[in-house]
Amino acid sequence: MSTIRNHVQLIGNVGQEPTITNLESGKKVARFSLATNEYYKDAKGEKQTDTNWHTVVAWGKTAEIVEKFVEKGKEVGISGKLKTRSYTTDDNEQRYVTEVIADEILLLGSKSDK
User: Fold this and answer.
1) 94-105: per-residue pLDDT in tens?
2) Strand partners for 59
3) GO cellular component terms (predicted)?
């Protein structure tokens, strides 16, 4: 049962080109936004779309896959966990950020030129 604790799976479209950072330790980190859509009909019977945006962070080998194959607009599947962290702004305000830490990435859709 512990394998389903803090587990998230998302399928969506990449909202921006991934940002790749090479750390001093030699590890890679990839960050990108992912849009997921839910569809429903409103009271008038018209189709509506509700879009949610998620920040995805990938480390190591997963980051290398992101660097090579993931680009803006690409449909991907993500499996990982949620991580919330906080930081203090220059104005001394406390902010909280929730990110999806990707353990696995599945490339969906058609092949690209990348």
Assistant:
1) 999 999 999 999
2) 29
3) nucleoid
